[in-house]
Design brief:
The complex is a heterodimer of chains A (about 500) and B (about 450). Chain A is α+β, with helices and mostly antiparallel strands and about 500 residues long. Chain A has 15 helices and 21 strands. In chain A, a hairpin with a 5-residue loop joins strand 17 and strand 18. Chain A is globular, with a radius of gyration of 23 Å. Chain B is mainly α. Chain B has 3 domains: about 110 residues, no CATH class; about 140 residues, Rossmann fold (3-Layer(aba) Sandwich); about 120 residues, Rossmann fold (3-Layer(aba) Sandwich). In chain B, about 45% of the residues lie in helices and about 5% in strands. In chain B, helix 13 crosses helix 15 and helix 18 packs across helix 19. Chain B is globular. Classes of the chains: A alpha+beta (about 500), B mainly alpha (about 450). Chains A and B meet through helix 2, helix 4, helix 9, helix 11 and helix 12 of A and helix 1, helix 2 and helix 4 of B.
Chain lengths: ~500, ~450
């Protein structure tokens, strides 16, 4: 429920007392434009997600001031960084104050000796790398949203890096950060004393607790990041397969090969290839006997990439993969990597091209279970499609994680025609998400490898997935956020409070 | 869930809807789920027309929500305000359609755009793909359309209203502030050059160049003379009308275009030589839209002409210019028109220059902030954007930033003064290297 007019007036005047006028936004457009993320959004219920007021802090002190005020007045507060997340962390469920951190985008320090940098969390990784490039360095956190997502959002979701097999994922790359707790206290969290230390056995390892909480435990404001030498060479070969099973076996072999420069591999299933063939103008057409694709990427010095690449090429040959050549490999890697294979239109069942939003349901699935999960997920989306033109199956990707080759970020891309999205379609969608999550758990996977699992639908299964761990989440939430002000309603955490929350 | 034979078959055979190759792999049920949004009540005809035109285009952006446009947007870079992002400019249309917002709620937000076009290039809907399904993102057009709707609905931005009123009265933009501009003085920049009126080729000199940075048209005219290229000036040149179109004053824009076309026809012009990228947009995009097939005037960008003349030897610069320069890709050339090669060819033909180039794609996120009327309504944002551009130049250890757009040069010159970086126009530099004493005012007191 929105604040009453009087309460809102009071809140705004208090905020204006501590922040400049241009840091407190109250217009309708300012608020409507901070209600959603790229994930499908119940556009027919847009106004339910509009914050009451938006603040644009410029420092940790500004954030502290706002959080203290929210805690004092018991007003919901929602952190928003890039607003590019796929699980709604930045979507207000109870209106309140939206804290948009984009102005905290300074580079505070670049430590060339220890290869770290300290930044405001409102900085984008691509923009950061434009500066780091001058020093021959790179911050390799590399989500699909690399050109637009922000460091703070990556902390809040603890996401996946596409080339994380080479350098680690967000949780490995963020060394420490300043974090404003729901009560307004500031904590520096990282290994041990924090700063630029990467390994510590001192005390509880708190860093991971304050990453991936989707804004329910506070707001990161300034982070120290791990840097790497900018790689001299990149190799990104694409391989075609005449069947999914061969491609699946191949990607497992690539990941298990133990090649140090291996940064990751992506498996495109038959539905993904068919979708690209029909609707992606950037897709370079392949013969119709191509049913699945594998791409892989290696980074490092030229000599080591050359040797590692030869080994991986041999492995793909042994699995029936056909190398697609330098031009396609480089061009398509750039396309996949940069624009993320999403034409943003799909088709109705009769073939009409319509604008659709892209949503991917992700999960962490072990290699051996990938084929079964793939079939079961397509069956769920097929059922949606049988019912209505609102949904389109855009196929699946699976990304490898690390040299062990065990876990795969597995995602099914679903096009949603939001112009035609009403309550019935939304209900079907939410149920489909529950079904997708149930398949994941049946195959002993995790509901999310990357995005988080706090959206309507899948969130219902999180207690089942985490068991007693979910109870610990409730305990932690209640302890750190006694008034349930921090992004209330997410992850079912209301049940931590008497009466189920506010 | 059990996997039926039917489902397994569908998985084995992904299909293309509508391809007619045997139809769907399963029995589709009649669609009782999809619902169009209810029309928002109480809309006037003009707003309904606007929404009908921009409904799908805006949804294409809204549906994506990726915001790849955000970090390349010059306004977002300096304000970090998501309400002023290309994504918001589309989402507002969707919100209007749904009845959440009106033009009065958003009109002032649409000031915050230089119409540089970076967002369109960076958009996943456009990048690499062209316009296969006519779903290309058209932020610039959306912004222009929303501004026009605002004006038509009586929602004015005060500085723009004054600017366009003054332009309407004097037929030129009030680029000299309190010093009036007028038809009487529109050719003053050409004093002593002995230029004829009329002829097959007409040199069009935009307001900023004609009244403020007069060194630019003087350089262009004298280079053309040096190359033996015959050209004349208009009998009565008015503003091209482009700025009015950009700010939403579409009737005035059209009126000016009609005047200029009539003037060209009256003096026998077959082609117009253009020295300003903003005019180039007006003449290659707006005018053809206004006049359709009747617009039979060839539009020649002098930057391209000069590159050609250097290539075939009609121009031979031989005076060394001892400067260390970088080049600012004017947005309307690089981002809007894909013209980036020729300016670099010109720079590389000038002896003595040390040229530290920054590639055109990196420059998608660079801008002077002077376009789209931003400098008129929010000069402080233009100044901040120009300061950022100069900061980028400063990392290259250059003493000079070369631009090819008179509108960019005023704010860049001001920002450059703070950083001891000269801002020079490409045409001025070429003229100097040809041994031409350009004369005129370069806006720097030089």
């Amino acid at each position: 429920m929105s604040l009453t007019a009087d309460a809102l007036d009071h809140l705004v005047s208090r905020l204006q007392g501590v922040l400049r006028a241009d840091q407190v936004l109250t217009s309708k457009a300012d608020r409507f434009n901070r209600a959603r993320t790229p994930a499908p959004f119940p556009v027919h219920r847009w106004s339910e997600h509009v914050p009451d007021v938006v603040v644009l802090p410029e420092s940790t002190d500004d954030v502290v001031t706002v959080v203290r005020l929210a805690n004092e007045l018991a007003v919901p507060i929602v952190p928003r960084d890039g607003g590019t997340g796929l699980t709604d962390g930045a979507v207000p469920l109870r209106h309140g104050i939206l804290v948009d951190v984009k102005r905290m985008n300074q580079i505070h320090e670049i430590d060339l000796d220890n290869r770290t940098c300290t930044v405001g969390v409102g900085i984008n990784m691509l923009k950061l790398n434009e500066v780091l490039g001058r020093y021959g360095l790179i911050y390799p956190d590399n989500p699909a949203s690399y050109p637009c997502s922000l460091v703070g959002g990556r902390i809040g979701t603890s996401g996946w890096s596409l080339i994380g097999s080479r350098y680690g994922h967000t949780r490995d790359l963020v060394l420490s950060f300043d974090h404003v707790l729901p009560t307004g206290e500031v904590m520096h969290v990282g290994d041990g004393i924090g700063g630029n230390i990467t390994r510590s056995s001192s005390g509880y390892q708190l860093k991971h607790l304050f990453m991936g909480h989707q804004g329910t435990l506070g707001i990161a404001t300034r982070a120290t990041l791990k840097l790497f030498p900018k790689p001299e060479a990149e190799l990104s070969p694409f391989f075609a397969f005449s069947d999914y099973d061969s491609a699946h076996r191949c990607v497992g072999a690539l990941a298990r090969a133990g090649v140090a420069t291996f940064a990751g591999a992506v498996l495109f299933d038959e539905w993904k290839v068919a979708y690209l063939r029909r609707d992606d103008e950037a897709y370079i057409p392949q013969p119709s006997d191509v049913k699945a694709l594998v791409c892989t990427a290696l980074y490092g010095w030229e000599d080591e990439v050359r040797v590692g690449g030869k080994r991986l090429l041999r492995i793909t040959r042994e699995h029936g993969g056909r190398y697609l050549g330098d031009e396609i490999s480089e061009g398509d890697w750039a396309a996949r990597h940069d624009r993320y294979a999403t034409p943003l239109h799909g088709r109705t069942r009769s073939g009409q091209v319509v604008p659709m939003s892209w949503h991917c349901e992700d999960a962490s699935i072990s290699h051996t279970n990938l084929p079964a999960v793939t079939r079961a997920w397509h069956a769920i989306v097929t059922e949606l499609r049988r019912r209505t033109d609102v949904f389109d199956d855009w196929g699946m990707f699976a990304y490898t994680n690390g040299a062990t080759g065990i876990d795969y970020l597995t995602e099914i891309d679903v096009g949603i025609w939001e112009q035609q999205l009403g309550e019935e379609a939304w209900r079907l969608w939410v149920q489909a998400k529950r079904d997708i999550a149930a398949v994941t758990l049946r195959y002993r996977g995790s509901i999310s490898a990357c995005h988080g699992s706090c959206r309507e639908g899948e969130v219902d299964l999180v207690p089942e997935e985490l068991g007693r761990g979910y109870g610990v989440m409730l305990d932690v939430k209640r302890l750190l956020d006694p008034n349930n002000i921090m992004n209330p309603g997410k992850y079912g955490l209301d049940r931590a409070y008497e009466g189920g929350g506010r | 869930m059990t996997e039926t034979d039917d489902q397994r078959r569908s998985l084995a055979e992904p299909y293309t809807p509508g391809s007619g190759d045997g139809g769907e792999p399963w029995d589709a049920q009649p669609d009782t789920v999809a619902v169009a949004p209810p029309a928002a009540p109480g809309r006037d005809e003009r707003t309904v027309e606007f929404l009908a035109e921009w409904h799908n285009g805006s949804y294409n952006c809204f549906s994506s929500g990726h915001k790849f446009c955000r970090e390349v947007c010059p306004v977002v870079q300096v304000t970090r305000n998501e309400s002023w992002s290309p994504t918001a400019f589309h989402a507002n249309v969707v919100a209007m359609e749904r009845g959440h917002l009106d033009v009065a709620d958003v009109a002032a937000d649409y000031v915050n755009c230089t119409q540089c076009g970076a967002c369109e290039l960076r958009c996943p809907n456009t990048l690499f793909t062209g316009d296969f399904y006519r779903f290309r993102t058209r932020t610039v057009d959306v912004v222009k359309a929303m501004r026009a709707l605002a004006v038509d609905e009586g929602v004015h931005q005060p500085a723009w209203q004054r600017w366009n009123a003054s332009t309407g009265e004097r037929t030129h933009e009030p680029v000299l502030g309190d010093t009036p501009v007028s038809q009487e003085h529109v050719r003053d920049w050409a004093d002593g050059l002995d230029l004829p009126i009329g002829g097959e080729s007409i040199l069009f000199v935009d307001c900023e160049a004609a009244f403020y940075r007069t060194s630019v048209p003087r350089a262009v005219a004298q280079i053309l003379q040096r190359a033996g290229y015959e050209f004349g000036l208009m009998a009565e040149q008015w503003c091209c009308g482009g700025p009015a179109a950009e700010m939403g004053y579409t009737d005035q824009a059209r009126r000016f275009a009609e005047h200029n076309l009539a003037d060209w026809r009256a003096t026998g012009a077959r082609r117009v030589l253009v020295l300003d990228p903003h005019d180039y947009i007006s003449f290659t995009e707006d005018y053809p839209r206004y006049f359709g097939d009747d617009f039979d005037i060839e539009v020649v960008l002098v930057v391209e002409l000069f590159a050609e003349m250097l290539g075939d030897g009609r121009l031979r610069p031989d005076v060394p210019i001892e400067r260390t320069v970088t080049y600012h890709d004017p947005c309307r050339l690089n981002k809007r028109k894909g013209i980036w090669r020729e300016p670099r060819e010109i720079l590389r033909a000038i002896p003595g220059l040390t040229f530290h180039d920054v590639d055109r794609v990196t420059q998608w996120s660079y801008c002077s902030g002077a376009g789209g009327g931003l400098a008129i309504e929010k000069p402080e944002l233009t100044a901040a954007i120009s300061a950022r551009r100069i900061e980028h130049a400063a990392t290259l250890d250059v003493d000079t930033l070369v631009s090819a757009c008179p509108w960019s040069e005023r704010p860049l010159t001001a920002a450059g003064a703070e950083a001891s970086i000269d801002v020079v126009d490409l045409h001025e530099l070429l003229a100097e290297s040809l041994g031409i004493d350009v004369g005129g005012d370069a806006g720097t007191g030089r």
